[in-house]
Amino acid sequence: MSALMEAVRAGRTAEVVGLLDGLTDAERRAFLPELKDLRKELRTAPWGHPSRHAYSTLHAAGAACETGAAAAVSWIAGSDMRWSQSSAALLIHILGDRDASWLADVTHRLAGRPASAGVSYELMAGLVRLSGCPVPTTETYVQAWVSHIGQLWQLGDTLFERLRRDPHLAELMAALFETNDVAGPMEWSSAENVDGWVDAIARLTVEGALDRKRTVDACVARLLRGGSTLDQRAFLRVVKGLALTREEEREHIADWLALASDAVPTVASYAQAVLGSLALDGELTPRRLAEMSDAVLFRSEKKLVRAQLVLLGKVLARDASAAADVLPALAFAFGHTDTEVQERALKLVERHVKKVDSSEVRAELAAAADQLVPVLRARAVETLGAAPVTSTSTVYEEVLPPAPEPVRLAPAPESAVELAEEVGALLATEGDVPTFERVLDGLVRHAYRDHKTLVEALEPVVARRWWHSDDPEYARRADDHFSRTHRAFGSAEYGLDLLLATLQDKVRTVTLHEGMQDGHRSRTCGHSALSRAFDARVWEVAYRLRAEPLPFLLSTPSWSTGLLEPDELVDRLDTYRRLGARVSSADFAQALLRVRRGDRAAAAAAAERASSLGTTEGVRLARWLTSESPTLPLSRRRASGPRVLLEFGELLDVQEDFPAEFRTLGQPVTVYGNNWYCYHWNRDMQRHWLAILPERRELIAARIVRDVSAVALDGTRGAAAVLPLLAESDGAPGEATHLCLAYGLGARHPEDRLAAVDALLVLAARGQLDGDRLGTDLGQLVRSGAVKPSRLAESMRTGAATGANTSIWGILRHTLSALLADLDGDIKPAQARGLGDLLAVAAECAERCGARGELPHLAQTADRTGSSRLVTQARRLRSALVAGVAA
């Protein structure tokens, strides 16, 4: 080994630099093959291995020995050395003796790399100074410049002073307005509150270091170009900081119109305010104002729409001649999804339509009145001469989104190479139930057919897994880790790792046997019954891969929901009988829990075939298929503060003749059991739990209701994502399913509420939604404080927007009956606001679906004095229920 390579391997950077000084390009290139070999060697070294300390020195040596600009850049920005790079100062010293044109080429190539490459700004800026080349204005360079210059507060000066001293200020500032993802560094760039980018740009503009017109134009152009909300918010602050003059605002009228139409809400609101100010000062023509209104009233943001209606009202009150141009724009508001917006627009038309002499304008408004809800349309008949509501238009039919259909599982991949590709994809994404089950079955099948070929195909996939190493000590620690966890799988991916490690002989047989026999029964939580059933099957599969491979799995589902067709299970048992294969107990137990029993005719036919097999499993399957249909256990509610939970009784049929780890599925579900330890941090496991009992979703719902309640009570995120899958499962949806749904509808985060709405619509489309039960649950949870009415109103409004007005009204009439009964005396503002929102959604649904009748306790609220949202919407709902006119 040469002295240079010995120093590189030892990590002696100073010695390496000394050895490289004075060498010719040819002499340096001669070391490249050895350096590249060392680089390959370090890539496969386990994390934390002593040899990895050579990375920093290797990084510097390779940069010095690569004499081509492209090759040098590829080495410097290599992803495998990103976290162990040499310092920028060292690289600049090493490259300092190169030709200026070569350095310029390297500089611009480095700046052209994606920002994710992590190229040091100090390195790029140092090479710019060294080569004298023009400063790069690429996205990577500008982002790095913004981040770097904002972090130099240790120098004791301000960001403004640092920017003013920058010799490339004009070029980089011009590029700043065209660069994405710079808002983050701009936000936290300085330690002083007053020293930020907004203030610095404004002062540089006043001082003349930046041309004002060019800066203003660049800011507005950046807002027009769009981008992330964070970027838009940052550059909007810059625009505000420049304090535009009225002349500058007039120059950009067309831009403000475009921003009010299409920009993110914060930017659109600013553009709307500028245009509104111009309009009220008479500097925006009525035709331009109408053009603006056409765009803004089409937006979904109610705040923008309402602000536009207020603006139109002010303009019409000041200038009667503007009515002919402005009033037709209000026709867009007639079709808005919020009926309160419709009513405000109609009031404006009613107030100012007399100022218009044109019959064409009146006819246009009358035609647009067809979009109004029935109660408002009846008013438009009188004021605008709109066509009256006919009997043919009063028939309302609820249109629900189609319920998702279960998908047939494709067979396991035929070749080991295809299977390895699916394993790699599954490890990268954690996948879904069908993907996991296909891969699991594929591993079993190919291990049975040709174990050696399977192991070879999997080698590239598992080479970088945490448990894979040729170091005996590292392998011992990996086995010890599996041994200590036994069944404590925190994710399906971890279970897959056990199977792959078993195939690669990284887990001892004694560890697999112990894992199959022992469980962490002392560490229990509400999910333990579900996790033990899942883990027991995986541990048993792993053991059989080593000791007695199975030809295939009996429990692989037929459908994406986890259901297994009885005829398919009989066919599999028959194949086992012909092959003389021994059935795995956990695999067979899971197959029984998945087999479809809801179709009694198909179950009976399959039972007859199963009994004729003459095997113990065939007789057991026949008895299971002909037993009584699954029933729900007895349940009772228990309250823990504002949280309402369920307790379930015992299910004997899930305990009889099942392995010990599956019997817990039928044991009682208690609220105050031993819940002190829970390792189920991965939400993706819930979808696998649903596939354990695909015809008994209530048993799953009862065990996850505490998790789902946290999205409403504790503001956690993600636990409601399982609700659509719960709605797609089979089995009668009972108290637990609807309680989970109620918590999801009151979740803090929009994505959780949206998942709950999806689940609600699926249940409604399948004819399984119990609106009375759900509405009563929601009333109880709102009264206890577990669900905030404003959040619930957002969920209900989203559901109604899909066309499910009848279903939403069926829920809210029970919720509102309970909440309105509590109103007595003074009402707290927050309570009134949230309840007013719920009443608004209920009124809109009632108007659209033509609901009739009385709502208990509504009259006493509607008869209150005042014009608060609560009282106004109560009156509106009462009018809708009395009118009983369908959309």
Give the secondary structure arrangement, pairings included.
Layout: H1 3-10, H2 13-20, H3 25-29, H4 32-43, H5 55-65, H6 69-76, H7 88-95, H8 100-111, H9 121-131, H10 139-150, H11 159-165, H12 169-176, H13 183-187, H14 197-207, H15 212-225, H16 229-241, H17 246-251, H18 253-262, H19 265-280, H20 286-296, H21 302-318, H22 323-326, H23 331-334, H24 339-352, H25 359-368, H26 374-384, H27 416-429, H28 433-449, H29 451-462, H30 472-485, H31 492-503, H32 509-517, H33 528-547, H34 566-579, H35 585-594, H36 600-611, H37 616-626, E1 635-640, E2 643-648, H38 660-663, H39 685-692, H40 697-713, H41 723-728, H42 735-745, H43 750-765, H44 771-784, H45 789-801, H46 805-821, H47 829-849, H48 858-862, H49 869-883
Helix pairs in contact: 1-2, 2-5, 4-5, 5-6, 6-8, 7-9, 8-9, 11-14, 14-16, 15-16, 18-19, 18-20, 19-21, 21-24, 24-26, 27-28, 27-29, 28-29, 28-31, 30-32, 31-33, 32-33, 33-35, 33-39, 34-36, 36-37, 40-42, 42-43, 42-44, 43-45, 44-46, 45-46, 45-47, 46-47, 47-49
